[in-house]
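To whoever picks this up:

The nightly regression suite flagged Transcription factor MYC/MYB N-terminal domain-containing protein as changed. Nothing in the input moved, so I suspect the structure step. Input below, exactly as stored in the fixture:
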Amino acid sequence: MAVGDALRRLCEDIGWSYAVFWKAIGAADPVHLVWEDGYCGHTPCPAGSEASQARATELGCSAAVDSICSLVRKDMAQQVHVVGEG
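Regenerated output under the current build:
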């Protein structure tokens, strides 16, 4: 099973909004965590005017959900963390 499929199943089975798998790289100190794969199980919401907000309500999603998916796909994928810091 691919990592993305496992993350999707976690979201569906447990009810999580999203899941991210971080990969450890580096053999010595410091070890870095980098994005390996992620999944956000929500349909992207349209953004903008009142009409698109009404459409978002029809789809059963909100701007907050769209923000979570945006965070997962764009912001978190660019992050690198040092193990033991932060």
